[in-house]
Every structure is written in C-alpha cells, then in structure tokens.
C-alpha cells in the first residue's frame, strides 16, 4: 500500500491527476475556467474509476460530466447574448 503512494502505477496516475484538477478548480478566478477544469477532472476520474472498478466514483462523475458541460454551454450562450445586447 505505501509503495503505491510513493510509486504510483498505471491508473493511479489518473487518480492523482484528477485529484490535482479538483484542487486547481478551487483557484479558478472565472466560472468558465472552473467548468473547464471540472470537466477535465470528471474525465480523469471516469478513467480512473473504470480502471480501478470504483463504481461509486464512476457513477458520480458520469453524472457530473454532462452537468458541467451543459452549464458551460449555458454560460457561453448567455455571454453571446450579452455581447449582442451591448453592441446594439
């Protein structure tokens, strides 16, 4: 167990990457950056969960991924509407 922490193997790297991305999301200064980092984290966690057979983690991130994508799309659509409204 301790050796896996000091020398991660295979899918463990995905887990560490996903955790690091979650940490980075707390430093996001804009909601767009937050959503992009969250989407990337969701994808990394999905890969990690599939590789390790961690079904609760898999279910969580399979649900969160489309939610983050929809919210990002809504934010971009709202930004476009605001830009069109300001140009008139």
Strand content: under 5%
Gyration radius, to the nearest Å? 17 Å
The profile of the biggest β sheet is: none
How far do the termini sit from each other? 62 Å
Overall helicity: over 70%
Mean pLDDT: 91
Which residues sit in consecutive blocks of at least 5 with pLDDT less than 50? none
Outline: elongated
Number of helices: 4
Instruction: Briefly note the structural class of the backbone.
Output: mainly alpha
Number of strands: 0
**How many domains, in number, for the residues?**
1
Order of helices and strands: HHHH
Summary, kept brief:
With 88 residues, the protein is an all-alpha fold. It has helices spanning 2-6, 12-25, 31-52, 55-87.
Architecture blueprint of SSEs:
Blueprint: H1 2-6, H2 12-25, H3 31-52, H4 55-87
Describe the 3D structure.
The protein is an all-alpha fold and 88 residues long. 84% of the residues lie in helices and 0% in strands. The protein has 4 helices and no strands. The longest helix is centred in the C-terminal third of the chain and has 33 residues. The protein starts with a helix and ends with a helix. The model has no long low-confidence stretch (mean pLDDT 91).
């Amino acid at each position: 167990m301790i050796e896996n922490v000091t020398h991660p193997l295979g899918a463990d790297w995905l887990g560490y990457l996903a955790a690091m991305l979650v940490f980075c999301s707390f430093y996001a200064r804009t909601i767009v950056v937050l959503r992009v980092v969250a989407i990337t984290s969701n994808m990394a966690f999905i890969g990690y969960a599939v590789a390790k057979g961690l079904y609760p983690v898999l279910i969580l991130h399979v649900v969160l991924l489309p939610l983050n994508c929809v919210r990002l799309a809504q934010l971009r659509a709202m930004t476009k509407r605001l830009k069109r409204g300001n140009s008139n």
